[in-house]
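Incident log, structure service

09:12 report received: a user says their structure output differs between two submissions of the same chain.
09:20 pulled the input from the user's history:
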Amino acid sequence: MSSNSNNNFPVLPRINVAELVLEVFTHKSLRNGHSSNGQSSDNQRLAELGDKVLVLAVTNSLYKKTPIVKAADIPIERDKILSEENIAKWVNHYHLSKQLLYAPDLHDTINSPEELRTLLNAYIGAVFTQSGMGAITTWIGHLIGADTVAPSPTTDDEMDEHEPGQTPKRAKNEPSSPSVPLPPPPTPPAASALPPIILGYQQAQPTYPQPSYSQPVASTGNTVTYLPLFNQTCMQRKLNVEYNAEFSGPPHAGRWNIKCVVNGAIKGVGQGVSKQIAKEEAAKQAFFAMGFGPYSG
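09:34 re-ran on a clean worker, output below:
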């Protein structure tokens, strides 16, 4: 079993939760303690989780490989698969390091084997937190070129396609949960309406002298507030952001009109009965206009 060739890399699982995206791509050099809601301000906790999940996923694939891998050989094969060379190949293929936010004095060491492993583990930890072990097992099984990946559980729709009394056939290479029950994944953060940030986007290297990192983007219920995420992203990329506000109508029933101006160009316009609502809408429009995320309507 070996790592996959560049032409056969599986699709990278998406992270759809804004808080997790921000946590994954925030290096510990930007650590600012912990936010008021108890969330982590860097990717170290996710990396610790992802390290254990990755080991489990690779071990599971080796266990299910045919011909059978002897018990004594599983750790040896696993270490080969998780070599520094393979970790670097995976991180570079998925352009993960290009999106990492870190202090400028780490520019010469940010691509060290240790840093790349931490970043990959953090991403894996976030996918596990969001989607559970099944998503990891499928992705890693294909990533390492497993000869046999455990089949996934048959869905109700698939069962309906078979006649009563027949045992449904499963594709040889379909992923599945391991035969040994796994512990349930941690409860994921509330799903948000924020679309996934585009992976592979060329991240501008931060050059600010004293990086100050705000807490992860706030959310209320299932609605993500774009304003803090947009302002944070612009700050890290040294973009100048201004909000020009105008009020029209009677004092008791007027509306706010706000323009979000980035480096002198209008990128978003928002309206609302309150200044905060209008500012949030302007920031949301600017977020997608700047290419920070694919617009989903």
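09:41 both user submissions now match this output. Likely a transient worker issue. Closing.
09:42 reviewer note: The beta strands are 219-220, 223-224, 241-248, 255-262, 265-272. The mean pLDDT is 75.
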